[in-house]
Amino acid sequence: MEILVINGSPKGKYSVTLQTTNYLQILYPEHNFQVLNVGQTIKALEKDFSGAAAAIEKAELLVFSYPVYTFVAPCQLHRFIELMKEAKLNLSEKFATQITTSKHFYDITAHRYIQDNCGDLGLKYIRGLSADMEDLTSKKGQQEARDFWNYVMWCMAQGISEPVTEALPEPARCPVTVPASSAEKSGDVVIVADLREGDTQLAAMIDRFRAQLSRKTRVVNIREYPFRGGCLGCFNCAVSGKCIYKDGFDEYLRNEIQRADSIVYAFTISDHSMGARFKMYDDRQFCNGHRTVTIGMPVGYLISGNYSREMNLQTIVEARAQVVSNFLAGVATDEHNTDAAIDTLCATLTYVWTTDTCPLRISTVSAA
User: Fold this and answer.
1) DSSP secondary structure string, 27-81?
2) Claim to verify: residue 200 and residue 106 sit in the same structural domain
3) Strand, coil or helix: what is 135?
4) For residue 296, what are the contacts with CB-CB under 8 A and spacing of at least 6?
5) Are residues 117 and 221 in the same domain?
6) I need a labelling partner for 299 at 20 to 30 A (CA). Which of 61, 144, 156, 196 fits?
């Protein structure tokens, strides 16, 4: 059988996750395993996807292999999935599964992200393996890897795969009214946006929010930030908090974003997530190590798209706030009454800033 391992780890052949497929390759020499190190070569793949497309078309089984980064797959794998969709390959006769490693922290959201996108691509998805990073060093972990592989082979032989989720309709995107705002304002609220050129809907949502909010706002468009790349998982930042990249993002994050009164995130849903660029921003925040530097900060979201139908994305949004003890002031979407949703978010943020009785309020939140 022709098996293509899509290695989403930026560490390439040194990926801990990849060692599981290396182990399976030794045990089952009757199969031909090919590894595509997409996490390490994503910039080259953006320039020329033809080699990857040929490898995908040749394979009978695709195995997505990656470490779990901040609730989902690394941003490099997000970008590869975007490229797969842009290539418009016919994958309807192929099977797919996944192998991940982590400390079992929100593996379920990462796996669901891959499953949903396999459905979009027409792949027949088989439930994957969620492994601990040390599993291969134990007999129990080795047995679980073998059991997983036997199950995948059985599913393929029987033609069994997970049910396909119904395709989402095109989002309605209710219109936005942008009022004039001349009131004097104080404070500092930063809007971290993945604002693509021509995304007039999200731009209008941001404009209304800025006009209606009681505090001063500024926009950081991560689409324009000169990132040198996604998180490498190198842990260079673990002690010093200094990222190995020399693009200045670690200092920019601390000085221009995390010192604000509140952060509001804005994006248009892409591939059942916040999109590859936003995921790059999220992954690169690991330069903080596990320091909860924004503990107690109120956060909110402006999201364009079918958010109410994206249950996995809802879990990720709530988890991002819960894990670092942020108060989630709300998610304003454009599915129904966009103006009212944005105004409610503004009102909730104002309430948090001006009361001592708000649930989950932390003393580090500044009062107006």
Assistant:
1) H-TTSEEEEE-TTTSHHHHHH--HHHHHHHHH-SEEEEEEE-BTTB--HHHHHHH
2) no
3) helix
4) 325, 326, 327, 361, 362, 363, 364, 365
5) no
6) 196
Report field, pTM of the whole predicted structure over 0.85: yes
d(CA 316, CA 112) in angstroms, rounded, equals 11
Copy the structure tokens of residue 179.
Answer: 């009022």
Residue with tokens 């390439």: 12
Give the 3-state secondary structure of residue 346: helix
132, 201: one domain:
no
Residues 192, 266 contacting (CB under 8 angstroms): yes
Share of the chain above pLDDT 70, in %: 95
Tell me, yes or no, whether 331 and 201 share the same domain. yes
* Cβ pair 132, 101 in contact under 8 A: yes
Q: Check residue 324 and give its pLDDT.
A: 85
Any domain includes 168: no
Walk across the sheet containing 327-333 and list its strands.
Answer: 215-221, 186-193, 262-268, 298-304, 327-333
